[in-house]
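User: What would this chain look like folded?
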Amino acid sequence: MRKTIRHFQQMKDRGERIPMVTAYDYTSARLAEAAGLPILLVGDSLGMVMLGYESTVPVTLEEMIHHAKAVVRGTQVALVVVDMPFMTYHLSPEQALANCGRVMQQTGAQAVKIEGGARMAETVRRLTDNGIPVMGHIGLTPQSVNQFGGYRVQGRSLEAARQLLADAIALEEAGAFAIVLELVPAELAALVSQRLHVPTIGIGAGPGCDGQVQVWHDMLGLFEDFVPKHARRFGELGKAAREALTAYAAEVQAGSFPTEAHSVSMDAATWSALLAATDAGPAGEGMIAGADAASSEATVAVYGGNGKRRS
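Assistant: Here's the prediction, encoded as structure tokens.
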């Protein structure tokens, strides 16, 4: 059965750490779930790592819905949280309710995530009162990057630290089931995690949070424009992909790919009849080697076991 928000509260109560990762499509969702990740975030970071935007600000609601649908289709167990994009929940609780409701209905996701602290408490309460689970997000909130003047650590001063703690408490009291702490000093993030009853999910906030979230492309080495300080490379798939693509191009140019093993042949009698009918001559006679293979096997080779073409 699919995880619920109660599962993650129980994990915190038992002192179990919560691993979370972003996912943006069917394939990444399937891989993450198969690896045992219990919660996936369809992050608006897709604007940068999937769509090539300079920030998350240009991401639209339609783009988030499109990607979230694919992630939900790729999962059966993991709880799927969808980022609400810039200016889709800021104007009023009513706007937020309409747009979050649309995301839940059209994608099949189980929760949404919104940025902002105490100022968003009324909106969080309105959403949760209407059955929409909300994950909060404070500290560095990427949709406010222009206001912050860049991707800067938040909560370093006494005043800022007190405000961040107040924001976290306000979100919990409004009904948020978990809160992301991004680019917050480790000591402050640990204090917030201790004070709150609901789980905290850190990203660049040290080891004292109840869970951690990483961006898919950062942790797997797929996004190489820059590497955030808080990201750890758990794989170098970008390098592996380049090597594989280089080898593919070289074999195509050398004529060593594809081979007979990667090809499908016609029935020998049909091929002979075609040659006779078209007066094509013997030029293609070498193609009929192995033509007696079952046509069903050829279909599987081209389309895969589920009948879906993979090209």
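Residues 237-254 form the longest helix (18 residues). If you want, I can go into more detail on any region.
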